[in-house]
């Protein structure tokens, strides 16, 4: 192997492992509205990245900035190593589904994709490949007007995959889908990541993001309030320890024991619900035993993504309010 080929292979590996999306203090203002506010992004390669937040939080505007559809007011960003000020340098390596896809209803799914290959100068051999990826091969020759909403969404993803992209961006892909359609879309996104494609999916449905994503970005009022592995977020926001004493008479003493240790606790039916991390479960068991309380059950309930999101945003709101209050 020559030194030149070694250098080339190293460059390819570096490119493939570099973060596909990076942003620094990216902002977009529309007159009085600051839609995106100093957003920093570092999306790892090969993950399903979730971009979550309520409607109007700034998700779609951020995606439009990354695709070069709107210009930033300030800040910088790179997609696949290229600046968003030159989207022509990377856009053919990105597949995107923004809002509901549009197709010719009287044409078949295959014919619609053929139109797109001609417009994009893409080899037609990609059509069968992407139809298989989105599980539409059996219905490829049926007219699009006969497709369900979920099938149209999958055809939209197939269109996004035609250029064989390194990065796929899906904006609210499960909107309007029934539970079966949501499961299909979830499975398809996981399959793309398994093929080595980085997926960035935005949604206001936190439960759906929790079920599929590895990496998470939370946005609220245009600001990123959390970014990192989803497991780390949920671990940091453990919900409760559920302690079930052998005797009902020990419920209140167990609450007192936990409160004395600085842990919020309350009786909830036949058990005591303690706000603490999973690591404190062993300590709780030891303290209960030392106090003569026998536990016949001790389990951890993990916080959901929705609970973690509101814990973060409520804390941020309280901090903002306190900073605005005059000193007393």
Explain how this protein is built:
Helix content is 39%, strand content 26%. The chain has helices at residues 3-17, 59-66, 109-120, 125-133, 149-161, 179-194, 206-212, 230-236, 251-260, 280-290, 305-324, and strands at residues 21-30, 33-43, 48-52, 74-79, 82-83, 94-98, 167-171, 198-203, 215-220, 223-229, 240-245, 265-268, 271-274, 295-301. Helix 4 (125-133) packs across helix 5. It is elongated and about 75 Å long. It has 328 residues and is an alpha/beta fold. It starts with a helix and ends with a helix. Residues 1-16 have low confidence and may be disordered. Strand 9 and strand 10 (223-229) form a beta hairpin. It folds into 2 domains: 15-234, P-loop containing nucleotide triphosphate hydrolases (Rossmann fold, 3-Layer(aba) Sandwich), CATH 3.40.50; 238-301, YebC, transcriptional regulation domain (Alpha-Beta Plaits), CATH 3.30.70.980. The strands form 3 sheets. The chain has a 6-stranded mixed beta sheet, with helices on both faces. Strands 2-1-4-5 form a 4-stranded antiparallel beta sheet, with helices on one face. The chain has 11 helices and 14 strands.
């Amino acid at each position: 192997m020559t030194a030149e080929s070694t250098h080339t292979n190293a460059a390819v590996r570096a490119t493939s492992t570099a973060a596909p999306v990076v942003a620094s203090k990216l902002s977009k203002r529309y007159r009085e509205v600051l839609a995106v506010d100093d957003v920093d992004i570092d999306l790892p390669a090969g993950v399903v990245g979730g971009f979550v937040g309520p409607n109007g939080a700034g998700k779609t505007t951020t995606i439009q900035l990354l695709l070069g559809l709107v210009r930033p007011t300030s800040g910088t960003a790179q997609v696949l190593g290229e600046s968003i000020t030159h989207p022509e340098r990377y856009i053919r390596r990105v597949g995107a589904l923004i809002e509901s896809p549009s197709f010719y209803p009287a044409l078949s799914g295959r014919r619609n994709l053929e139109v797109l290959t001609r417009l994009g100068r893409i080899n037609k051999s990609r059509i069968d490949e992407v139809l298989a990826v989105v599980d539409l091969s059996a219905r490829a020759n049926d007219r699009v007007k006969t497709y369900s909403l979920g099938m149209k969404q999958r055809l939209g993803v197939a269109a996004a995959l035609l250029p064989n992209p390194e990065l796929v961006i899906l904006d609210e892909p499960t909107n309007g889908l029934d539970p079966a359609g949501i499961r299909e879309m979830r499975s398809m996104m996981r399959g793309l990541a398994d093929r080595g494609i980085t997926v960035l999916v935005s949604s206001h449905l936190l439960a759906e993001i929790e079920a599929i994503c590895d990496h998470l970005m939370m946005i609220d009022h245009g600001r990123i309030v959390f970014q990192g592995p989803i497991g780390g977020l949920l671990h940091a926001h453990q919900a409760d320890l559920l302690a079930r004493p052998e005797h009902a008479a020990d419920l209140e003493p167990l609450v007192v024991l936990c409160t004395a240790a600085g842990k919020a606790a309350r009786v909830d039916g036949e058990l005591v619900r303690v706000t603490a991390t999973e690591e404190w479960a062993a300590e709780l068991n030891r303290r209960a035993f030392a106090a003569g309380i026998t536990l016949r059950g001790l389990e951890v309930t993990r916080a959901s993504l929705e609970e973690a999101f509101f814990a973060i945003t409520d804390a941020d709101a309280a901090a903002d309010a306190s900073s605005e209050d005059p000193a007393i």
